[in-house]
Write a structure and sequence with these properties.
Blueprint lengths: L2 E6 L5 E7 L14 H10 L1 H7 L7 E8 L2 E7 L5 E6 L5 H19 L13 H14 L4
Antiparallel strand pairs: 1-2, 1-5, 3-4, 4-5
Length: 142
């Protein structure tokens, strides 16, 4: 099973993206094979997230959209930063919600960095390593 995780800024610009799972036969992650399709699916669901965020009191939106066998879940922060997860099947609510919560905590730590400006891409290797660890913990894939 594969996952595509993206953090989208307030201006609908990608701040961070990572793909988990989808290892090839040689054990090498296929980075560009479906990357553009994943980006398109996630960014096409942004309008739905913006509509749904005003209809709920929670930050977590379990089911935003579906594209073929792909499902999209989202987490919208108080600062209107959107965490989007593209996954292959309808999964249990708990692991995805916990994944978003821990990623949000790591994102808050990035915001506390005085050298980081909101809506700029996150290039920190420590952030990437932490998100991948959280993905292995809750989503069971790397």
């Amino acid at each position: 099973m594969s996952f595509y995780f993206a953090i989208v800024g307030t201006k609908d610009n990608p701040l961070y993206e990572a793909e988990f799972g989808s290892k090839g036969v040689e054990g090498i992650v296929k980075k560009d094979e479906h990357r553009h399709l994943n980006q398109f699916i996630v960014h096409s669901a942004l309008d739905l997230v913006e509509e749904l965020q005003w209809q709920t009191n929670t930050m977590y939106i379990k089911h935003v959209d579906k594209f073929n066998e792909w499902h999209i879940s989202a987490h919208v922060t108080a600062g209107n930063i959107k965490f989007m997860l593209l996954h292959e099947s309808q999964r249990d609510d708990g692991p995805i919600k916990n994944f978003f919560s821990e990623c949000y905590e790591v994102y808050i730590k990035i915001l506390l960095n005085p050298f980081y400006e909101v809506n700029l891409p996150i290039t920190s290797p420590a952030f990437d390593a932490r998100v991948r660890f959280i993905a292995r913990k809750y989503l069971g894939k790397e």
